[in-house]
Amino acid sequence: MPGNWTLEPTCGIFATTDTAFATPLTGTLAAGSYVTHCTGGTSTGYNPTSYVNGSFAVNKASSTTTVTCPSSVTYTGTPRTPCSASVTGAGGLSLTPTPTYANNTAVGTNTASASYTYGGDTNHDGSSDSKSFSISGGSSATIYIVPTPKTVRYGASKPKYTYTLRSGSPTGPQVRLNFPRGSKAPKCTSSYAVRTPVAASPLMITCSGGSLAGYSFDTTSTAALTIVKATSTTTVVCPTVVYYTGSALTPCSAYVRGSGGLQASVAVTYQSNVAVGRATARATYAGDANHLGSSGYGYFTIRSR
Fold it and tell me: Which domain holds residue 280?
């Protein structure tokens, strides 16, 4: 019992490799595993004969990574790097690394970002942080509205017109902007209607409008809307059975259908349509200015009475 010691044992913390317990460790210990060992000591009524070593562990401390960015910077045409990063932790850890950037050239609302990941060290766990910021066009910035080319089949409904926003020029870096209440997003359109013929292709897609504080919009870029021929479907209708007469039998009919109101009869040709047995009927639509061609088949059986 502690009260019976006349001279308490001397105990210390040692490296696991110090099997002779020659050098006790002092001060701040690095994260890891250690051995505790005691020697000496006298007690009334007790005579220490052996000492049991203990274990001692120092766990890694946490670290904190903080990235700090302004809410917005002005577009310059070159990558913007306005952010800073810091890493702190117990034991005096204090670093000021350079963050990594993404999407930090083009104009955009909260589309640029800065991040840093600290991998940790012998005594600290890793940590990370990231922040986003906006790149504004400034008072004289021009955003170019570039419509997306479209292809539609004859007779199809109007396509959904889309566009990209670019800074610097119509081929410059792509921009992402938010259009909140009170602003107005651009719109694109063409003269295409459901029955605009293939011969009128290509049509011009143009854009207009667009208003957002701090930006002006250039709508001079255009794109092509290409109309291609629609498919057609040829159908052959035949009775199941006809009876032998000794003459060529032609009991079938055919028609073609297609988008844009295509509806017409088609001539039918026959094979094996005299003798008893299975006969074939075929119809082929050659196509027209707005439709691709198509073929259909029908079959019937010739029986003797």
Answer: 232-303
